[in-house]
Design a protein that fits this description.
By secondary structure, the protein is an alpha/beta fold. Helix content is 45%, strand content 10%. It contains ten helices and seven strands. The protein has helices spanning 3-19, 48-56, 60-71, 94-108, 131-146, 187-195, 217-237, 260-275, 288-306, 320-342, and strands spanning 33-34, 44-46, 77-83, 87-92, 122-127, 150-155, 169-172. The strands form two sheets. A four-stranded antiparallel sheet has the order 1-2-4-3, covered by helices on one side. The protein has a three-stranded parallel sheet with strand order 6-5-7, with helices on one face. A hairpin with a 3-residue loop joins β3 (77-83) and β4 (87-92). The longest helix has 23 residues, at 320-342. The two termini are 33 Å apart. The model is unreliable at 244-248 (pLDDT under 50).
């Protein structure tokens, strides 16, 4: 279960409480689900009870207690605890959730995390004539497209003076400009150099982006992706794959391998990262591409920790555990490739 899916479960629990007359509130359009804070427990936490307490005219702890009973009935939820002033801490069935997540990624492929959340909406993105702004606008358009929306790019400062029609959703993109033309780095490294720093930070346009070693973040991401493809090829040579009717993706084993639990959490968080671009024109939309680069880097690092446990060693025979680990590795490779594609960067199978 991804954070986006869990937020829908929380909303469903609120809706059920309202329908049963337990709460007299307007069901919110969205709720925030994130990692538990200090003193929190479980896999995720939400402050929805604090959000609804005032309109419900009840103490937050009372609202939390009401919602806890409904939320505990949701599929995939194993436990709900109340901490602090009324935070709901949610524990999930990790085995079932992990297996479903891996199967979903392998089924959806590069479109994992794509939704129709903003389908039919057109956002106007106003950008200056500058290479970094152009690249950020292109990636934002790709990310918004992954959520079903469309971006129309307009150039020049004069657009700031135009009246904004009531039907138009407009945002202005003003990142710190690149110190020089990054074209000499080649298309992939040049895009990374402009996208990875936060938009308010000055990008570093140097040949360091081309080195083939771990100190280069772009190399680590592309290397992790290539390694997942290599592991798949090696597994096929050993006679096992994650495709076919004989394969059962039993992800219950995967959290016990090095890096796997962190990897699963990052994979589950991928849809939320993509959805940040759909916040146009609200929020700091221009930071969405930078967030995606950092997410892919964390995902690559967790993937590289997991990969050594995938293939059998010595005289060990391939087992269901190896197939589940391979499925997780292939899911990670798929998400890395999909994320790089949204950045406009190639994901080669061989490095």
């Amino acid at each position: 279960m991804t954070p986006v899916e869990l937020s829908r479960s929380v909303l469903h629990a609120v809706r059920c409480a309202v329908d049963d007359g337990e709460l007299n509130v307007v069901v919110p359009s969205r709720v925030v689900v994130g990692r538990p804070g200090p003193g929190g427990r479980g896999d995720y936490a939400t402050n929805v009870a604090l959000q609804l307490a005032r309109p419900a005219g009840q103490p937050p702890l009372r609202v939390a207690a009401l919602l806890r009973a409904y939320l505990a009935r949701e599929a995939g939820v194993t436990d709900v605890e109340i901490t602090g002033p009324g935070f709901l801490n949610i524990s999930l069935d990790r085995a079932a959730t992990s297996a479903a997540l891996v199967r979903r990624i392998l089924r959806e492929g590069l479109r994992y995390g794509h939704t129709d959340a903003v389908a039919g909406r057109v956002f106007v993105l106003c950008v200056p004539y500058e290479v970094r702004a152009e690249v950020l606008a292109d990636v934002l358009a790709r990310m918004v497209g992954s959520q079903g929306g469309r971006v129309e790019v307009r150039h020049g400062g004069a657009v700031k003076l135009e009246p904004v029609p009531a039907s138009e959703e407009r945002a202005f993109l003003r990142p710190v400009p690149a110190p020089e033309d990054p074209a000499f780095l080649g298309p992939d490294a040049a895009r990374w150099a402009l996208l990875h720093p936060a938009p308010h930070d000055r990008p570093r346009v140097t040949a360091d982006h081309l080195v083939q070693r771990e100190s280069n973040p772009l190399f680590r991401i592309r290397y992790a992706h290539a390694r997942t493809r290599a592991v798949s090829r090696n597994a096929a040579d050993l006679g096992f794959t994650t495709t076919g009717p004989e394969t059962d993706v039993e992800a219950a084993d995967t959290p016990h391998t090095p890096g796997a639990q962190q990897l699963l959490l990052l994979l589950a968080d991928h849809p939320r990262v993509l959805a940040t671009a759909a916040a146009l024109p609200h929020g700091d939309c221009q930071a969405a591409p930078s967030r995606l680069t950092r997410h892919l880097l964390a995902l690559a690092d967790a993937t590289l920790v997991h990969l050594p446990a995938v293939l059998p060693r010595g005289d060990e025979k391939p087992s269901a555990a190896h197939r589940s680990r391979l499925a997780l590795a292939e899911a990670a490779g798929t998400v890395l490739a999909g994320g790089l594609s949204l950045l406009g960067i190639d994901a080669p199978d061989h490095l």
